[in-house]
Amino acid sequence: MTTAPELILHIGHFKTGTTALQVFCASNAAQLARQGLRYASTHLRHAKHSPLAFALLQEAGATALMHGYDQPTPAAQMWAALFDEVRDNGRTTLISTEEFARLAMYPAAVDALRGIVATAPDIRFRVIAYLRPPQSHLRSWYNQLVKMGMLVGNFDTAVCAQMEAIHWDYALALKPWIDIFGEDRIILRQFDDQLRDGDAMFEDFLESLGFHLPMMARPPERDPNPRLDDRALGLRRALSRAKVRPQVLQQVMIRAAASLDAETQIAPGVEPHDFAGIRDTTRAAIHALCALPHAALDPEVLLDDLPVPMTPEAREMSELVALLAGELANLRATQRQTFVRLEALEKRFDAQPGRPSDPPAGGPAERPGAPPPKPADGAK
Fold first, then answer.
1. What is the dihedral of CA 143, 149, 153, 156, to 10 degrees?
2. How far is residue 375's CA from residue 215's CA, in Å, rounded to a whole number?
3. What is the predicted pLDDT for the residue at 103?
């Protein structure tokens, strides 16, 4: 009995190590193929298969977050080419793009996919998705939007009015896939920080699909989608809104990173305390001193105001003020350098031989052949 060819769809979610997984699969395609897992080459772009999702979204009327996609090829035709590769492979084929998670926001795209899948009754399907704790996901996705230069508001505004609901309603994001393929075809995995260690993410992904990590696998040399420093999100949003040129933006962000590091820099040899320990010491000291026979102290008042760290809002404001002050100082220094250069150029220009002299004090210099100037009113 011949086993039907299988297609596995890795649908994300966003910010769950998808880019790292895609780079890993593309870089180790030959080793994975020897196990019977082919990373599809059809519509593979930048190590992922996003055109297969974008085609569905485009036909459903999506315009936001399409990343410049504008291809006339019908989605059905693109998927038919993928199905041909799956059949030629005859074993298990894998595609991956987190853009699949957005289909739930476009019912027409879901209906189109349902019709496309119906044209391949000879192919078995499985779907795998990773989910991370919701607040962690929202924070990470907000970071990504700011990094991409999207004109979003603050975090609260972005979550409540600017992010698609799939980013906080996981059931909505998974509903199309459950409806089309059935609950028994859906594999859900937990994403957490432990998966960032070494090959843990790749091993977890492959084992959940019934494969194993190749012995000579080559993981990505660096994070293919590094996170923007959360401390600089406000500055990055402001620069995007001001439409600052990319070269200037890059230089400002480099200076911002140095400024932010300086905000928490500790002198060599200093062992910092932590606020929990500071509060414990302060509390014990207050109790001890209030117990002295002649202490006119109110312990409740003192204990009600123990040391606490800055709130995230206060820390962000402090860091932003430091960034803006640094940029103002840099701008003033740049202007001074410009003025010095202009003065030097003027002096060189004035010193050039043959430079026309200034007009005489009695009036403007006359050009040869020019008519005499008209007399002023009342002159004879």
1. -20
2. 98
3. 98
- 235, 252 in Cβ contact below 8 A? yes
Q: Helix-strand-coil percent breakdown of the chain, rounded to 5? A: 55, 5, 40
**pLDDT value of position 355:** 63
**Model pLDDT, residue 360:** 56
**260 contacts 232 by C-beta, under 8 angstroms:** yes
Q: How many CB atoms lie within 10 A of CB 98?
A: 23
Give me the pLDDT at residue 380, please.
Answer: 44
126 secondary structure, DSSP code: E
pLDDT of residue 80: 98
Q: Which of 228, 240, 104 is nearest to 166 (CA)?
A: 104
The per-residue pLDDT for 117 is 98
31 to 25, 38, 93, 205, 229: CA distances (angstroms): 9, 9, 14, 15, 35
Domain ranges of the chain: 6-224, 229-264+311-345
SS3 category, 106: coil
pLDDT recorded at residue 358: 55
Mark the ranges of the chain whose per-residue pLDDT is less than 70: 1-2, 354-380
The CA radius of gyration of the chain, in Å to the nearest whole number, is: 32
Torsion sign across C-alpha atoms 336, 341, 346, 351: positive
Question: Cis peptide before 46, with omega less than 30 degrees from 0?
Answer: no
Pure H helices in 66-209: 75-89, 107-118, 134-147, 155-157, 170-181, 200-208
According to CATH, the superfamily of the domain at 6-224 is: P-loop containing nucleotide triphosphate hydrolases (3.40.50.300)
